[in-house]
From TrEMBL:
Domain of life from the UniProt record: Bacteria
Signal peptide: 1-19
InterPro entries, alphabetized: Metallo-depent_PP-like (IPR029052)
SUPFAM superfamilies: Metallo-dependent phosphatases (SSF56300)
Protein name, entry field: Calcineurin-like phosphoesterase domain-containing protein
Keywords of this entry: Signal
Amino acid sequence: MRRLLLLACLAGLALPARAEPLRFVAFGDMPYCRPQAPEQCAVEEGRVARLMQAINAARPAFTLFVGDTKGSGELCTDDKLLRAHGWMSLADHPLVYTPGDNEWTDCWQDRAGRYDPLERLAFLRARFFGRAESLGRRPMPVQQQAGPTVENARWMRDRVMFITLHVTGSNNGRPPEPGEPGAAGLPRGPAAMTEFEARDAANRAWLAESFAAAEAGMRAVVIAMQSDLFYRQHCGHGYESGYSAIREAIAQAAARFGRPVLLINGDNHFFLHEEPFERAPNLTRLMVPGDRDAQAVVVTLDPGAAKPYRFELIGEAGMPPQRPACPGYSSSIRSTRSE
């Protein structure tokens, strides 16, 4: 009997310890100041500052901000773009940022000041991605993709690989196909198309390289970007030409990987999680709140669990709260605030 007990104890010691769940935070699409109500800008900035306090209190390993540091109607001035440095520096942990369309893609529009989007993109890259490290008070090193797409980052924590991909709203900055709905809101010209094609190819290459590296021992992969790749599937309209290739690449990579994959995006400003690919049931998509809802999602990730994710909202909901982008999304939204 004693020998059996000893063998049992030794067997227990030989088993690898179960890794602790990993906690991090994701949010985006704020603060949204509006030129027609300039007096409210300080209010919106205050809500984001309070949200940063709540995020710090949650003590995450790091935070992901998935784009849109300003409202679409704000001018794309240097000051407006650099405003994000102020509240991002409130994070007492690493904060990783991937850009949205409001920071550069849409800056050609009249309401944004008719800036050159490519010049604004170069400005963002120089001022936010000049070093191979995160933002926040305690930066962590990240691996950057080779130029020019230095904003694409990769890092590992607890055998989970994290990837950012520079995929934005407004059709990912791609000029429209002939007859494509919403063409008036998209950039035009050969320079815009050249930029899109290069970045789209770089995103797919970064994705493939990252998943190839993840095959060797990673328990899960997390992908963060700004754009909602599934708007058209839910709403029946919207841009498609700028998203089809990267969406297909993500579906294929996740299906081959087989282990948990979490795709995080912003863009449409309300909390949602779903499994969008029948052929890749291991992929969960999380859309974070934004705009009226100054909220973030605390993600608890346990790749070995039957349900790998727990999502918890923190921060201040709007009064009234943000509404779904279309009726097709209403039936997909999970009613629980914490799962």
